[in-house]
Every structure is written in C-alpha cells, then in structure tokens.
Amino acid sequence: MKKLINRVEDVLNEQLQGLAKAHPQLTLHQDPLYVTRTDAPVAGKVALLSGGGSGHEPMHCGYIGQGMLSGACPGEIFTSPTPDKMFECAMQIDGGEGVLLIIKNYTGDILNFETATELLHESGIKVTTVVVDDDVAVKDSLYTAGRRGVANTVLIEKLVGAAAERGDSLEACAELGRRLNNLGHSIGIALGACTVPAAGQPSFTLKDDEMEFGVGIHGEPGIDRRASARWTKPSMRCSIPCWKTALTAARCASGIPSRGTWQEVQQSKTRAAKPATGLSRWLITSAPLRFPNCMACITASPSAAKRPASSSNATSSAATVLRWIWRASPSLC
C-alpha cells in the first residue's frame, strides 16, 4: 500500500504537528505527547478526555473542540497511550468540575486509563470513566476481554460533549455516556485489510470476491468470510440485539423545531423501520461533516408516525434532525 510518509518512526508526531498547524484551536503538547483545546482549561465545565492507539483518524484528536473532547492522548499505531500522557492531559484540561475519561474497551487502554485514574485521584482531581464496548461481532478478541469499543465512541464523545458544554455535572455526563453505550451496538465488515506502516503489508488477505464479516478495527479476525452480500444484512440484524427492541430517542416533529422535546419510547425496530413517515428510511445514510462512514438512524416519535408525511416534508424534517445531531448544540441532550 502506498503511503505519504517520511520515516515510519515520525508518522505520529508529524501527523499531529500538521493537525495543530491546520487547526489553531488545537494545541499540541510534547513530552509527553497529547493534544488539547487551545482555550483549556474551561472553568466551570466538565472536561472530556479520550485516547487510544493511532491509525483510526480522525479519532481521537480530530474530535477535540467546543461541545466535544477537551483533550486526547494518542498512542503509537494500534498501541495504547501511556498513563503519564493521560495524567498530564487531564491535569491540563481540568476546569475544576472534574474530568470524564471515555475509554474504548481494549485491554491496554483499560489498564493504562485505570492507572491514570488512580494518579488523578491521588492528586485531588475529580475523575470518572465511561467504557465503550459496542462491537457485537465477538465477545473476546486479540486485544480485548469482552466486546470491543468502536463506532459508538464517536457518538458518545459528541453527545456527552454537548452535555458538558451545557454545564452538566460530572456524574450526569458519566451517566449519559453509560446509557448511550448501552444503547449502541455495531458490527464491522471489511473489503480489505489495513496496513500498519511498520509492517509494510496488509494484516490479512482477502480474495477479490470475499469480505471479512465481524472484523476488528485493528485487523482482528472476524466471524467468517463470505462472498455474497445477500445474507450479510440478515446476519447483521441477528447479531445486533438492539434491532428487535430498543429505547429510541426522538425529537417530536410537531411545533417549532427549536422548541421540540426529546422523549424515549420503547418500540419495535421492525415497526420503526417502516417507511410510513419516510423519515426513518431517509435517515439511514452516511453521516455528513466530520463523521465519514458513520451510520445514523433517527426514528420519528409515535405521535409523529401517525401523521402522513410527504416525501418533501420527510426530507425537510430529516435534514433538521441531522442538523441537531451533528451540530450537537448544548440543548441536544
């Protein structure tokens, strides 16, 4: 695989230097290496910190900013950052209301973040954690004990970041993050393998007509390999437990959008996916802006589902909902 790099040993540092130069709202710290908001610490607001092995860009440093992360600790490619990075970053971003650590469920990340948490407690910093484990492909893998943390991490950083920006307490932000984790499930499919720069070759090989079903984000083996997409969708539906029944948050479509209210209703995913309103069908789409390849599905509330909606009205409502989600205004949660 061709790569635009200089020396393999300098990939991480040079990538972060370029990120900081392109985005003046970010500050790159050296020795130890981490990234923060330029205006950190923000007094009176809970600070959010995440991190993990590099190679999953724009996670996590690309999600630092107002209404999202306050700081991030990048490790080397597919390698957990060290506790000293996490400790120094947390000390830098703490605005007095505590620090919430958002951790993907990988053994190295868990161990190092736990060590950093102990150091922060000893230093008198209020700190708590949210562990993300949304991948339902396998229970245990090469890097984890339990489910892996993947796509739901970004949504948690976005939504909990909005709550922190609004001024929610550390406990409220943590509780929201854990609820979002419980509601989020994912499964991955790969058409090809990733190439770690130091290795110089793909982590596995697939035939031209094969896909890896249930692959991990580090190239961990999936459940099986298959050549047809015909049975892949049903397999995904059976693998994701929230497909049958889940708590779905929905903004009421009636009235002025800015005055709508969020409500949680328990409903059948099968029923919710019916194109009665045209809204949920339209919303299963690639997410825009800073979230390439993420999928979003927002369903209308039961009261809204009873009202017939034209295609144009559904599209307009859907666009409005997407704007609420991806802008992540403080009133989002």
Automatic annotation (TrEMBL):
| InterPro entries (UniProt xref) | DhaK_dom (IPR004006), Dihydroxyacetone_Kinase (IPR050861)
Q: Which Gene3D superfamilies match?
A: Dihydroxyacetone kinase, domain 1, Dihydroxyacetone kinase, domain 2
Q: GO cellular-component terms in the record?
A: cytosol
**Superkingdom in the source lineage:** Bacteria
> Key word Transferase present in the record?
yes
The protein's Enzyme Commission number: 2.7.-.-
Keyword line: Pyruvate, Transferase
**Does Transferase show up as a keyword for this record?**
yes
Pfam families, from UniProt?
Answer: Dak1
A GO biological process this protein is involved in? glycerol catabolic process
Which terms does the record give in the GO molecular function aspect?
Answer: glycerone kinase activity
Task: Please report the stretch or stretches of sequence annotated as the DhaK domain.
Answer: 7-333
SUPFAM superfamilies linked: DAK1/DegV-like
The protein in question is named: Phosphoenolpyruvate-dihydroxyacetone phosphotransferase
Q: Which organism is it from?
A: Klebsiella pneumoniae
